[in-house]
């Protein structure tokens, strides 16, 4: 004779209240009719159904909450899903859970019903966990890198047009004035890179991880440089080719669907890497910098632009970012980048931290997503649009709080006599 299911004896609101150190800063309500937190709170959370509770209980931390949110099982009021900045700041600043002991945790789970410990299917936007990816290919192998890059960048070119704006630049902009627009700041970023590389008409530039070709087209159009860009995203390469042809730059600019490690040409005057280093893995930095060094002619320059940590320990991204945004992503500090560049035979000439600029860039992207929300949802679905809203907002807050940074590192391939071709003082302005 089968036993009847256990009836929950603890409300969800009671369980939440039990785990809060300093009380609930937002209004929380649940499908069982329970609640917690002040009724007049500016931000509200509503747990819609039992599936949402199962997501949260079976994947504690940001992953379970993200799953419930993406699937619509956890609803947020008081903020726009495309830019939930105010709500997320409030939660990160004031939401403080205490960790229960084993006996208390078991009591809480029994009170909520142990049947909730069966995980629901994960949302379709979620990538495989790291251990599953390892079964399918070595981390940062050519095949696996192509697959995870496609997961992030092959969402929809139209979706990226909505979020990024006309520049289609998916990296930190440079705001030369407080009132600069996002488009002006992206153009300033490309020009800063060009000036640091001291690009001159007739030179050759290699742009690795070139995205939609923004740097390639800027170098060709503004500096008369013959520029080659490579990207692992097929959708990016196809978009870039059309943009290059439309701009009449096909005689100078080219974008290939190619892994940077498969570039066979060398003797470039300059190499730019804008937003690629985050994807290659810290243990691969020595090989990465050695490969780029070998693409340069003596006296050539490398500009490496990448997200960094505020410390120099290799750190993988959290579960939400790894599963939904940047699979296999890994960050470390600028010191490690400088060290590995030097050990590869490059002479580092200049470093710059653009952390606050990236926070402003993300604010601009979030505002674009809000303005184009209905079209974005029609293009990629509400779940994916919500992933981007929370990812960009969370990243903005991390830059504001100096949890992550953005560094440009400028280096030269100095020849065997010690000649780098670098002037006595920087010529690009600082």
From TrEMBL:
Residues 159-411 form the Polyketide synthase-like methyltransferase domain. It comes from the Bacteria. The keyword S-adenosyl-L-methionine applies. One of its GO terms (molecular function) is methyltransferase activity. The keyword Transferase applies. Its EC number is 2.1.1.-. SMART domains: PKS_MT. One of its GO terms (biological process) is methylation. Keywords: Lipid metabolism, Methyltransferase, S-adenosyl-L-methionine, Transferase. Belongs to the CFA/CMAS family. This is Class I SAM-dependent methyltransferase. It comes from Nocardioides imazamoxiresistens. The lineage of its organism: Bacteria, Bacillati, Actinomycetota, Actinomycetes, Propionibacteriales.
């Amino acid at each position: 004779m089968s036993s009847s299911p256990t009836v929950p004896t603890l409300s969800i609101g009671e369980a939440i209240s039990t785990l809060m150190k300093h009380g609930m800063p937002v209004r929380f309500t649940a499908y069982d009719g329970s609640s917690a937190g002040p009724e007049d709170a500016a931000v509200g959370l509503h747990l819609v159904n039992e599936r949402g509770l199962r997501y949260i209980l079976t994947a504690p931390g940001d992953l379970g909450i993200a799953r419930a949110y993406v699937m619509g099982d956890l609803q947020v009021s008081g903020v726009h899903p495309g830019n939930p900045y105010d709500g997320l700041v409030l939660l990160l600043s004031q939401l403080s859970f205490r960790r229960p002991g084993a006996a208390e945790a078991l009591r809480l789970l029994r009170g909520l019903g142990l049947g909730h410990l069966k995980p629901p299917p994960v949302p379709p936007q979620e990538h495989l966990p790291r251990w599953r990816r390892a079964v399918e290919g070595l981390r940062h192998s050519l095949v696996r890198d192509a697959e995870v890059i496609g997961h992030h960048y092959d969402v929809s070119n139209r979706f990226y047009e909505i979020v990024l704006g006309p520049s289609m630049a998916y990296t930190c902009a440079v705001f030369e004035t407080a009132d600069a627009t996002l488009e002006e700041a992206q153009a300033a970023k490309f020009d800063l890179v060009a000036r640091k590389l001291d690009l001159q008409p007739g030179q050759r530039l290699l742009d690795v991880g070139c995205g939609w070709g923004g740097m390639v087209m800027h170098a060709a159009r503004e500096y008369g440089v013959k520029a080659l860009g490579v990207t692992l995203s097929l959708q990016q390469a196809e978009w870039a080719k059309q943009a290059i042809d439309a701009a009449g730059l096909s005689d100078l600019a080219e974008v290939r669907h190619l892994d940077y490690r498969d570039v066979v040409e060398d003797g470039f005057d300059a190499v730019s890497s804008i937003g690629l280093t985050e994807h290659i893995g810290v243990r691969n930095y020595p090989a990465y910098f050695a490969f780029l060094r070998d693409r340069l002619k003596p006296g050539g320059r490398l500009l490496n632009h990448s997200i960094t940590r505020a410390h120099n320990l290799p750190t993988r991204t959290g579960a939400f970012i790894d599963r939904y945004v940047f699979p296999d992503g890994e960050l470390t500090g600028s010191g490690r980048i400088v060290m590995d560049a030097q050990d590869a035979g490059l002479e580092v000439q200049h470093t710059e931290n653009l952390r606050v600029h990236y926070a402003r860039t993300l604010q601009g992207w979030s505002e674009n997503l809000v303005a184009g929300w209905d079209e974005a949802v029609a293009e990629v679905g509400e779940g994916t649009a919500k992933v981007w809203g929370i990812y960009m907002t969370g990243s903005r807050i991390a830059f504001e709080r100096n949890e992550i940074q953005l560094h440009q590192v400028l280096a030269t391939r100095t020849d065997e006599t010690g000649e780098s071709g670098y002037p006595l003082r920087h010529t690009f302005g600082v």
